[in-house]
Amino acid sequence: MEKQFLNRIRAEIDLGAAEKNFTALKGFLYDDFTKPACVIKADGYGHGDLPLMTLYQKLGADFFCVSNTEEALRLRNGGCNGDILILGWSSPEDADVLSENNIIVTLVSVENALAFSEKASKPVRVHIKLDTGMGRVGLDASDTEHCASDIAKIAVLPNISAEGAFTHFAAADSRLDDDVSFTEDQKQKFLAAVNASERFGVRFKHIHFLNSAATIYDYDSRSTLARLGILLYGLRPAYSMKIPFALRPVMSLKTVVSQVKTIHKGNTVSYGRTYAAPGDKIIATVPCGYADGYPRMLSGNCEAIIRGKRAKGVGRICMDQMMFDVTKIEGVSEGDEVILIGSDGTETITADDLAEAYGSIGYELVCGIGKRVPRIYVGGKRSDKDDE
């Protein structure tokens, strides 16, 4: 294993927190009807797909969701023994390699299904995506009979093993009356199309529509899978969403103070001279920037925790460095730990907090933490393959 240098910056991944989130979410499911499907696409939302897969597998999970062929093969080659569903687009050219690795493909149209059928020399396991209002991909479920007919056409194609159907909710993370009604309408369109397809002789092993938000707000045992994503990582599907259990953020982002200096009234800091000191100030520089995935849009609107206290970010965030006003924090010196995401004593900064400050979501922030930031796993044993 290549040596990792931990003195500049690190993302600590708390496997104990991930376990608690998984256990809490599983408590919302009726075991006889709905099983958890752990969504670990985008390298486990930036947390590391193989360590998280290994943990969830040890906790009893045997169904996983990813975005693409590469992610699916990485899981399979990394020791995943359960089912793997690709939620996004797959090339029909990959039909045989996906079949050989026992990976489930999402089909989004009759044409897409025909292409897979033509390219496959052996049966390919598939789930059929229905568009009930998301407006992205999938069979149009607004016309129940036509949708059911298309499902039936796909199900009888050579080398297509249609095991499931699913849809995705557009606003399950909102409790506004209009959004709640829209989510219910999506569910009813989906169930109507699936039920109608049974008249054509189609019987699915899995039908699923629950995502993280719907699992805790709109649980329905007719969904045989609950696609658990962002809540597993201790972040909220929407910043204002109230979570009915103790949500534990899994990722902390930590760096160090690289230099402390005093500047005087009128002195400016960083590119563009956007910050001018209103008086004498003590400035701590830290070796983290937007190349590490810390959003430049947070320039002048971020905080860090240093010596248990909050420090305000000043000046523009650079590619590799950022600066904080530590005038009111006694004794700050080179080498002190700086918490950009995480907790120290009574102070906490979450990815959700940061994302809300610049009009984004916690998903984007953690997914964007760069590959040059080493992931350090705490609270559990790591897989031998974590660093591949």
Give the C-level CATH assignment of the largest domain. Alpha Beta
Question: What's the name of the CATH homologous superfamily of the largest domain?
Answer: Alanine racemase
CA radius of gyration is 24 Å
How many domains is the backbone divided into? 2
How does this model look, in words?
- Helices cover 27% and strands 25% of the residues.
- The protein has 2 domains: 15-233, TIM Barrel (Alpha-Beta Barrel), CATH 3.20.20.10; 251-349, Lyase, Ornithine Decarboxylase, Chain A, domain 1 (Beta Barrel).
- The strands form 3 sheets. Strands 1, 11, 12, 15, 16, 17, 18, 19, 20 and 21 form a 10-stranded mixed beta sheet that branches. Strands 2, 3, 4, 5, 6, 7, 8, 9 and 10 form a 9-stranded parallel beta sheet that branches.
- With 388 residues, the chain is an alpha/beta fold.
- The protein is built from 11 helices and 21 strands.
- The model is unreliable at 381-388 (pLDDT under 50).
Describe the SSE topology.
Layout: E1 9-14, H1 15-26, E2 35-39, H2 41-45, H3 49-58, E3 63-66, H4 69-77, E4 83-86, H5 95-100, E5 103-107, H6 110-119, E6 124-131, E7 139-140, H7 144-155, E8 160-166, H8 177-198, E9 206-208, H9 212-217, E10 225-228, E11 251-256, E12 259-263, E13 268-269, E14 275-276, E15 281-286, E16 303-306, E17 309-314, E18 322-325, E19 337-344, E20 347-349, H10 351-357, H11 362-367, E21 375-378
Parallel strand pairs: 1-21, 2-3, 2-10, 3-4, 4-5, 5-6, 6-7, 6-8, 8-9
Antiparallel strand pairs: 1-11, 11-19, 12-15, 13-14, 15-18, 16-17, 16-19, 17-18, 19-20
Helix pairs in contact: 1-3, 7-8
